[in-house]
Write the structure tokens for this entry.
Amino acid sequence: MLKVEHITKYYGDFLAVDDLSFEVQEGEIFGLLGVNGAGKTTTFRMMMGLLDYQKGKITLNGKPIDYRVTDQIGFLTEERSLLTKLTVKQQAIFFGVLKGLSKKEILKRLDILLERFEISEYKEKKIKELSKGNQQKVQFITAILNEPKLLILDEPFSGLDPFNVELFKKEILRLAQQGSMIIFSSHRMDHVELFCKKLVILVKGKSVIEGYIKDIKKDYRKKNILIKGDVSKEELLKIGGVLQVLEKADELEVKIESEEVVQSVFEYVKNRKNITKFMVEEPSLQEIFVAKVGETYEK
């Protein structure tokens, strides 16, 4: 288990991370989210033992994170961190040796991963000769060569097309099934919802939302109703509790302040003609993120 307990980090007088706590169990994919400058990168670096902190404690399976356990950690950074003049094979050996692996074990694992990511033919090619998407694959491969117990993924799908997103997704889920603890960070909330059951959202270094996504959505009272048929946007807006009506292709999305408003909208809709869709749905994580982060900045 990864335990982050009441971590506080200052840069001089600037408070970068403010009393942050969370836990990640074996086999769990955990979302750590926030706008730029929210404290995510600082938190990642503290989790890897690269930065000290003023208060709190971080442990991996009960042990403080230092050079005795960092070989058990993998990190895919948002920025490219590859040595572009090396070949893919040389890059893997370089990072694998740093993680305490033998050259024989590195090459064995590399061949397996290159085949999974469908780039076996690039093994002897220099990094600079690869496309951005294939460079991202190599960077991911080097992050998981050591089969990490803790894997930190910062914008892992950057530069990938939908097909390659699926390749990454399969490997991330495989690692979780094998027991890896995975920290997943992305500005794409739809990607977060693909993987994560639990998350923390940071604003100015402090947690503003935390817990299970299903509970976060349930507690966020605003809902959406999707309607397809002969209805009037103007009449819907007159119903008490209707906040907004958006036109989306051939249907309307009605945003309401709480579930109690559903009945009022339904009473209007049931008397209209050609209604082929009336569906109440939870708000997206994107909606909740924007609303909660906005509220925090307004205070």
In short: The chain has two domains: 2-217, 221-282. The first helix runs from residue 40 to 47. The two ends are 35 Å apart (CA to CA).
